Prior knowledge:
Elements: H1 2-23, H2 34-69, H3 74-108
Amino acid sequence: MRAEKRFNKxxxxxxxxxxxxxxxxxxxxxxxxxxxIINKFTDVGLKIIPLLGAMAFLFFVWGVARFIKxxxxxxxxxxxxxxxxxxxxxxxxxxxxxxxxxxxxxxxxFSGDTVVPQINL
Length: 121
């Protein structure tokens, strides 16, 4: 067990110290700056957030449907209320994360366009 821990620490250390060399190994024509890396991560994050928001909204609607369906059972009403609350909490967290990412992108100048989720019909 002890040898396995030392091996894991060695691999983590090796990866930590070799990552900058791998990033900078592309030469001058393929140079990747930190702004490009940050833009890639925020682009992926801003594309995932609407999907997770839709899932949280469906979770909330499912809780409301269960609440309406469970007219007599106290346990089902309690479970439905928990589902509704967690759906609302999930939506709040996702909207907050989206707002923070959009604010930081505009504040630090990583992207000039505004990031507002829209539904195109």
